[in-house]
Design goal:
The protein is α/β, with parallel strands linked by helices. It is about 45% helix and about 15% strand. The chain has helices spanning about 5-15, 25-55, 70-85, 95-100, 120-135, 140-145, 165-180, 190-205, 210, 220-230, 245-255, 270-280, 345-355, 370, 375-390, 445-455, 470-475, 495-525; strands spanning about 105-110, 115-120, 235-240, 260-265, 290-295, 305-310, 355-365, 390-395, 410-415, 425-430, 435, 440, 465-470. The longest helix has 29 residues, at about 25-55. It starts with a helix and ends in a 6-residue tail after the last helix. The mean pLDDT is about 90.
Length: about 525
């Protein structure tokens, strides 16, 4: 797909989203738009797979008679095969295209003018979405599809005051989506996945802090992904303990040939559903991902597992229980201190370090406070450096990169087996960005410079430095970047004698000008202005 075709597709999708714009907020209408796109994808994916199964019998899935005995027999066999292959099943009558067509019925009015009028399909749509989830019951994919369409409330008065109004809006959306070809047969590209990512980013940008919580800008995701895949073409596993919409996990997959398994956990139900949809839309089979819905710190869901790559953008300085009982838990016990209840940043870091495999790399976003704050956080930071020597690099990013917050952030890179055990790399990339409207943006050259510097550990004046552990110890384990990367611009030296001569020259010129003005005033017989 060319860039022009991609932009055209994105514009069409945003136009569809605008059907709901103004009725409800962006973080609410994303549930409908993204949910219906997902339904369309599931429908087309299943129809394609079913036709493959039916090819030896010269049958077409959409033409099977659901009410005949033979049709029922074929559908029962297809259900078993497609649930095993894809994780779910739909009947021909439940296909997206059939429902969209049903929503548009041609009628003739009294003046014999043809018009299009919406047929009531809300109940049918609700049944289909429920049917998708029910088709997985008792199968391996049940957890991955459970309550997947929970956030699509077809009875919400926010999308229409009356049932007819709501039906008209839904029919408009389905009809517009039905006209778009997502090119599922194109194995070289990921048209639908990219379109989905585009919409997620648009919704996050348009909805402020609440929607931005679940989305890490692609430029930042790209840096994390490139770092954790350094010198690797395959990954056994990748994990994100605060996975949001799953975009960060999927970004890692773009950097390698294969990822064996994706793991994630997300506390917010809406974004947990979005993450599962996002995985399936990017053609990640349900066998290959394990996304859980729970509070990661309070109720971790992947106990006993170690991961080769870990990426995360945890909520900045979030609150957590800091329950004293956690002091005896393996994730935290060795440190001797818990992260404060008002700032969970180090609790997330400790959790991730616990799950990091010996040959793994972990990269996470954090506020700058984790680099220098004292008390319990200072104690944990010292332990990670002095006792474990896990911190590999600190990368300072520009401010105002994230939706919903303008604070500058940093990337912390951890390794349990460091190739450079005697030092820590510091990069100050805070001044490398382009301002686009109200948001700062990283361009490819900024991203590539950060990643190249990390991988080479090159010392670049006013940009990067390698500090020995002794230097870090001398700074009392304070990792604040300006302590190690000197970006100070020396003041231009001034020669006072030269300045004095210049002032004397100016005074001389002023006397000449005043004398000329005085002579003019005398000729005009007026007072001088001085």
């Amino acid at each position: 797909m060319s860039d022009d075709q991609k932009k055209l597709l994105e514009q069409k999708l945003w136009d569809i989203a605008n059907i709901l714009r103004g009725k409800i907020s962006a973080n609410q209408f994303q549930d409908y738009i993204l949910g219906f796109i997902f339904y369309k994808y599931l429908s087309e994916k299943l129809e394609k797979k079913a036709n493959e199964f039916l090819q030896p019998d010269n049958l077409i899935f959409a033409e099977i008679d659901e009410n005949s005995e033979q049709g029922k027999m074929y559908l029962e066999a297809l259900k078993s095969s497609t649930v095993d292959a894809l994780g779910y099943f739909l009947k021909p009558s439940e296909l997206f295209s059939n429902l969209a067509k049903k929503g548009n019925a041609k009628v003739i009015n009294e003046e014999d003018e043809e018009q299009i009028q919406s047929t009531f399909i809300l109940e049918d749509l609700a049944n289909v979405l429920s049917s998708i989830e029910k088709s997985t019951m008792g199968s391996e994919s049940q957890d991955d599809f459970d309550q997947l369409f929970y956030d699509i409330d077809l009875n919400s008065t926010k999308i229409g005051r009356t049932t007819k109004d709501r039906n008209d809006v839904i029919v408009k959306i389905l009809t517009a989506l039905d006209a778009i070809d997502f090119d599922l047969d194109n194995t070289e590209g990921d048209v639908l996945g990219d379109a989905y990512e585009y919409l997620i980013a648009q919704f996050a940008a348009g909805a402020g802090q609440k929607a931005g919580e679940f989305y890490t800008p692609q430029q930042v995701s790209s840096i994390l992904a490139k770092i954790v895949t350094t010198k690797k073409s395959k990954l056994k596993s990748v994990y994100d303990p605060t996975c949001g919409s799953g975009s960060l996990l999927l970004r890692v997959a773009k950097e390698v040939d294969d990822v064996g398994h994706f793991y994630g956990q997300e506390q917010n139900r809406t974004t947990y559903n979005l993450a599962r949809m996002n995985m399936i839309l990017h053609d990640v089979n349900y066998h290959k991902f394990d996304i859980k819905h729970e509070d990661t710190l309070e109720r971790p869901q992947h106990e006993g597992l170690k991961f080769e790559a870990i990426v995360a953008n945890p909520p900045f300085s979030a609150k957590w229980s800091a329950n004293p009982l956690f002091s005896n838990e393996e994730r935290f016990s060795q440190y001797g201190r818990l992260a404060p209840g008002t700032k969970a940043d180090f609790a997330f870091i400790q959790h991730m370090v616990h799950h990091l495999d010996d040959n793994g790399i972990m990269a996470c976003i954090a506020p700058h406070g984790v680099l220098f704050r004292g008390a319990a956080e200072g104690h944990i930071r010292k332990f990670l450096i002095e006792e474990r020597n896990y911190i590999d690099a600190i990368i300072g990013l520009p401010a105002n990169l994230f939706y919903g917050t303008s604070i500058p952030t940093c990337i912390l890179v951890f390794k349990k087996c460091k190739e450079n055990p005697d030092d820590i790399l510091f990069i100050d990339a805070s001044n490398d960005f382009e301002k686009v409207k109200n948001q700062n943006v990283l361009r490819d050259e900024h991203i590539n410079k950060i990643v190249a510097t990390y991988q080479s550990r090159e010392v670049i004046e006013k940009y990067s430095n390698v500090a020995t552990l002794e230097q870090v110890k001398a700074n009392d384990y304070n990792l604040n970047i300006p302590r190690y990367v000197n970006t100070f611009e020396e003041a231009v030296s001034i020669d006072i004698n030269v300045i004095a001569e210049q002032l004397q020259s100016i005074d001389g010129k002023m006397e000449t000008v005043d004398s000329t003005i005085a002579s003019f005033c005398a000729e005009l017989n007026i007072k001088t202005p001085f």
